[in-house]
Amino acid sequence: MLSSKMLALLSVLLLSSHVLPLVQSTSCDDKTEYLYDQTCCKKCKPGEYVLENCKYQSATQCATCGNGFFTNDYNSYFNWCPDCRTCTKDHMTYKKNCTTTSNAVCTCVEGYRCTDSDCQACEKIQTATVPSAITTTIPPTHDIMWISVSLCCACVCVCVLLTCFLLISRNARQYGWIMPASPDKSNSGSSQCTEEEEVPMPVQEMCGKTEKLEDV
Ligand SMILES: *[C@@H]1O[C@H](CO)[C@@H](O)[C@H](O)[C@H]1NC(C)=O
User: Fold this and answer.
1) Probe ligand 1: pick from 86, 97, 102, 107, max atoms within 8 Å of CB?
2) Residue nearest to atom 8 of ligand 1 (CA)
3) How far apart are CA 121 and CA 37, in angstroms?
4) C-beta of 36 in contact with ligand 1 (< 6 A)
5) Nearest-CA residue for atom 10 of ligand 1
6) pTM to 2 decimals?
7) Are 62 and 45 in contact (CB under 8 A)?
8) Number of structural domains the chain divides into
9) How far apart are the CA of 79 and the centre of ligand 1, in A?
10) What residues form DSSP beta bridges with 94?
11) Does some domain include residue 167?
12) Is residue 22 part of a domain?
């Protein structure tokens, strides 16, 4: 009998020690009340602020936020309201004007977009034609480069060919491929022509002609 009484007492003590502080801490409704001077005061509703904290047998006194200020929830702001947001940055405008119960919402003017979800800044919208213009302007520069390179190569080739041709023609003149008539006239032509069997066709023909002329 004694042991059961003791257990009951102990359980009551344990319960009270755990439950009593919980009851005290949850005595104020966090949504609509706040603890002031060990009393639960009523919070002020959105659009208002606390002018006077509640006292014994007198409720909280609230006042409406002034122009340019707002409260968007039940609050215990004492003698102040938060500032409304201003949308005065470059290319920025109001999506929603500020009211006593809601903050202003910013957006960007046409042709601009917000840089983040909070619209802290506006940036110019890059139109679809701009990137395509960039991509189309790059290939022509490559084309021009390749065209100029190939032109240079062509010029160099032409120069090389010209110099080769000049050198060949000079050498040909020295060996008498082009002007065979002058040595033929000075010497007895028939013997020379027969000796040089490696001489190309035109010279042989010329030699033949001179021989015929001499014979006639
Ligand atoms: C905000 O208020 C101004 C006048 O103060 C008005 O011209 C404008 O249209 C309003 N903007 C919005 C988004 O309600």
Assistant:
1) 97
2) 97
3) 44
4) no
5) 97
6) 0.50
7) yes
8) 3
9) 28
10) 106
11) no
12) no
Q: With respect to residue 147, please indicate whether it lies within any of the assigned structural domains.
A: no
What residues make up the domain containing 115? 88-96+104-128
DSSP string, 42-73: EPBPTTEEEEE--BTTBPPEEEE--TTB---S
Q: How far is the CA of 97 from the centre of ligand 1 (A)?
A: 6
Q: Which amino acid is at 201?
A: M
Position in ligand 1 atom list of the atom nearest CA 95: 13
pLDDT in tens, the chain (216 residues): 445 555 554 444 344 444 444 444 558 999 999 999 999 999 999 999 999 999 988 999 999 999 999 999 999 999 999 999 999 999 999 999 999 999 999 999 999 999 999 999 999 998 876 455 555 555 556 666 776 777 766 767 676 788 867 887 777 666 555 544 444 444 444 444 444 444 444 444 444 444 444 444
Residue with tokens 């000075």: 186
